[in-house]
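Homework help board

Subject: predicted structure for assignment chain

Our instructor gave us this sequence and asked us to write out the predicted structure in token form, then describe one feature. I got the tokens but I'm not sure how to describe them. Can anyone check?
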Amino acid sequence: MERVSEATAAREATDADASGAVEAAGHFRIYLGAAAGVGKTYAMLSEGRRRRDRGTDVVIGFVECHGRERTEEMIGDLEVVPRKKVEYRGSVLEEMDLDAVLARHPKVALIDELAHTNVPGSGKNENAGRTCWRSSRPASTSSPP
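My token output:
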């Protein structure tokens, strides 16, 4: 009969308890391009559509088409989480509604324009400067100060 030390037994018991308590981390895919207009957003939307067509739960958290018709067409019938409107210095800005995306809990969330400064007062991590999950864009034709 094999003997197991108390330390080994305790470690195995802890590992067994913790195995169901920790969720697996998500995956993060970044589309890089050397310039604007080279197809990063289009490629991301294409991949989102491919996954959705294969049965994956996909939503658009935030996409900026920059007036490109083919990119707008790629959104098609993909579910889009509505943007949050935030007033800042007399302008109304639209941001990704992170709380709505998290509440929706999709398997895949497509998020464009990752590197943007948060609007002050917009919520989580507003003092963090650039983030990888928030975007802000003017909701009207007036430019923010």
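Reply (TA_rk): Your tokens look well-formed. For the description, you could write something like this. The two ends are 76 Å apart (CA to CA). That's the kind of observation they're looking for.
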